[in-house]
């Protein structure tokens, strides 16, 4: 595993001539942003609805599952703005892809809202597990109906009738699959929706009880996750599909464990490969080491040799001491 920054991630996309076209729903409009900068609309509180992956300008892969509670903002025009993480005073045009000093992408907001039946329905019908279970139910019922039909209409039951059951069952299964596909979705939608509502209420209670700055935490978490996965070979993109659970452990080093469902996109052997998994991430609050860049001043004193250094450099140019960490929440463990 090599240490790869955002810059090297961009270079990786350029190396393989990969363009990721992301589309957002903003009001009644569909806007888009491209990693090759061919078209980058200004986005304010947009919800992701699709990602298209192009290799050498040829569409190779598409993803359409996203969490509608996560809203994104990318603005290239506006007044000066203080980065909420490090305090650096910047123009909005300089932070559309993250603060250049503390590297935080402070463009993410996680909104508490009812996801609705369609959200859960879409998650159900796009699941491979759901398709497999529906197929098994479809085949079993189709073969049972074929058996009952042949048994009741045939005077004898021989090898020919067994072949008929097999043929009729396959044909019936093909004809009835979509019917079972739709019926099963509506059967399971109720329990899933109730489960997600309980999960949402539990998360709301977590944020109220913990008194953690919610927006800062989510942006710090996304920064840490991005850094972690972009350090992996072949990873070209990631998405957090769902936050499943939060656990808070207060103390000298405040700790939050986040259980989330993550989708990673790989470029392997000239192919785009998608993999979804669930993992738990442990983040500690950096109570003592957060460097604040107040009043727009980005020159700080090296804690080791006292030299004046640029906060965006990451280390002292003279003694090579790493500067204090600029994130409030730091990823320490993943399992």
Model description:
This protein has 335 residues and is of the alpha+beta class. It folds into two domains: 6-111 and 211-334, no CATH class; 118-207, no CATH class. 34% of the residues lie in helices and 31% in strands. The chain contains five helices and 14 strands. Strands 1, 2, 3, 4, 5 and 8 form a six-stranded antiparallel β-sheet that branches. Strands 9-10-11-14 form a four-stranded antiparallel β-sheet. β9 (235-249) and β10 (255-268) form a beta hairpin. The two termini are 17 Å apart.
Order of helices and strands: HEEEEEEEEHHHHEEEEEE
Total domains: 2
Distance between the termini: 17 Å
Mean pLDDT: 79
Decide which structural class fits the backbone: alpha+beta
Q: Counting H and I runs of at least 4 residues, what is the number of helices?
A: 5
What fraction of the residues are assigned to beta strands by DSSP?
25-35%
Radius of gyration: 26 Å
How is the topology of this model organized?
Layout: H1 6-15, E1 18-26, E2 29-34, E3 43-55, E4 58-63, E5 70-74, E6 80-82, E7 89-91, E8 108-110, H2 116-125, H3 128-153, H4 159-210, H5 214-230, E9 235-249, E10 255-268, E11 271-285, E12 299-301, E13 308-310, E14 329-334
Antiparallel strand pairs: 1-2, 1-3, 3-4, 3-5, 5-8, 6-7, 9-10, 10-11, 11-14, 12-13
Helix pairs in contact: 2-4, 3-4
């Amino acid at each position: 595993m090599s240490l790869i920054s955002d810059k090297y991630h961009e270079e990786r996309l350029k190396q393989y001539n990969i363009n990721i076209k992301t589309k957002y729903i903003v009001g009644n409009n569909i806007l888009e942003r491209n990693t090759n900068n061919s078209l980058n609309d200004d986005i304010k509180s947009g919800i992701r609805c699709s990602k298209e992956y192009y290799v050498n300008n040829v569409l190779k892969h598409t993803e359409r599952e996203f969490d509608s509670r996560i809203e994104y903002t990318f603005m290239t025009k506006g007044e000066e703005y203080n980065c909420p993480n490090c305090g650096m005073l910047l123009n909005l045009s300089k932070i559309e892809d993250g603060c250049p000093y503390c590297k935080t992408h402070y463009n993410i907001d996680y909104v508490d809202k009812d996801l609705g039946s369609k959200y859960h329905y879409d998650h159900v019908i796009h699941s491979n597990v759901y398709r497999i279970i529906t197929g098994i139910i479809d085949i079993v019922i189709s073969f049972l109906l074929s058996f009952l039909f042949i048994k009741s209409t045939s005077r004898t039951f021989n090898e020919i009738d067994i072949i008929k059951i097999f043929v009729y069952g396959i044909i019936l299964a093909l004809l009835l699959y979509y019917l079972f596909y739709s019926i099963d979705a509506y059967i399971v939608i109720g329990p899933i929706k109730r489960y997600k509502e309980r999960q949402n209420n539990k998360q709301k209670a977590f944020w109220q009880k913990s008194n953690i700055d919610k927006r800062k935490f989510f942006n710090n978490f996304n920064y840490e996750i991005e850094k972690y996965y972009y350090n992996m070979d072949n990873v070209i993109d990631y998405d957090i599909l769902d936050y499943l659970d939060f656990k808070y452990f207060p103390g000298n080093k405040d700790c939050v464990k986040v259980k989330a469902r993550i989708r990673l996109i790989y470029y392997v052997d000239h192919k785009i490969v998608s993999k979804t998994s669930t993992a738990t991430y442990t983040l500690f609050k950096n109570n003592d080491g957060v460097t604040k860049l107040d009043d727009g001043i980005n020159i700080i004193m090296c804690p080791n040799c006292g030299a004046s250094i640029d906060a965006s450099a990451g280390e002292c140019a003279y003694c090579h001491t790493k500067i204090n960490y600029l994130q409030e929440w730091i990823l320490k463990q993943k399992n």
